Amino acid sequence: MEGLVTIKAQCMCKAHTFSASLPKSDLPLNASCCHCTSCRRLTGSLYNPAVEWPNAFEDLSALRRYAFSQHLDVYSCNTCSSQLFARGHNPSIAPYVTTGALENIPDLVKYDNHMFIGDTIDGGLAPWLPKEEDGHPVQRWIGHRNSEEVPFDWPVTKSASASKLNTGPSPSSTPFHCHCKGVRLSLRSAADLEVDPAKESTSTCVDPKTLKFKACCDSCNSCRQHFGSDIIAWTFAPLTHINFSSEPESEPSQFPQSIVELKEAVLSKTKDPRLGTLAVYNSSPEVERYSCSVCSASIFYAVYDREDMVDIAVGLLDHPDGARAEALLAWNYGLLGWAKDAAGGWREQLVATTKDSMKEWAQCMNENQNIVD
Question: Domains, the chain, ranges and CATH?
């Protein structure tokens, strides 16, 4: 029918594809981005963007259902754990779809607002995301919709000095876990690591000036479908520095020390109960993605040519500084990887604007040394 457009949502492994039609005049769809702690633990992303799905009666019965709260269920792929939909218990109200599951066609989505920024403590990814759309400020609320409105760079504007944010000492170990807490681990500080150029797990993971774990963002298609978010934050750590939550910090890690051992342990018929609900999926011949088999949170990314290290989803970290964990992580403010995957569609401007905002943030915070293109 003339004037209608069909949109599609799909999981990473393509086992599930959903289509719906709506008037072209309804585009772009307005996305609400939630930064609450629960959404960060649910996805592994630093924020959870979603739009209303056009079909209120979409059949989601083939998906994994998880009770996110008393009033809301979330739905993901049983195979690859991609986050897809959220639906309340009133069947006549349309579900929400994660924007990361949507196609990258032009003018499909715009970020309209940000909620629960206060949960992040440090602002999380919000200061780096677009300040305005079509000349209008993107609203940012400290809590739920229409609560106290805050500026785009909150909490810097409330601080006596931007350089004074997050300057406290980092704990020796930072817990990280998924929403259902089926996966509960901890990340030991990199302070005891000296960067050895000959050793992949330290030269790749650790910033030599600060002895913090490196962190950066990316926008690759596989990651955004897996997380359900459009921009993903990762940090990188040797497996020697990941511990089971029940382990004493002073003892050597009992966590698997190579990605081969990790996969074998997760798939073992006599699986160590401390691995909890950790599951593995081969997203490509040499890449493994680890997630929770209950709530579907993304946990690790592992690739075969880096045998003793993994990428960790930053949204899982429970650090006293806040969501960006800046006393633990050294952010590369000049890197937003895989921008080519966003080219040609609605995400292209989102990625370009975010990358520019990250550089502006670094200059404001006097972190120019961490701008590496």
Answer: 4-158 (2.170.150.70), 171-370 (2.170.150.70)
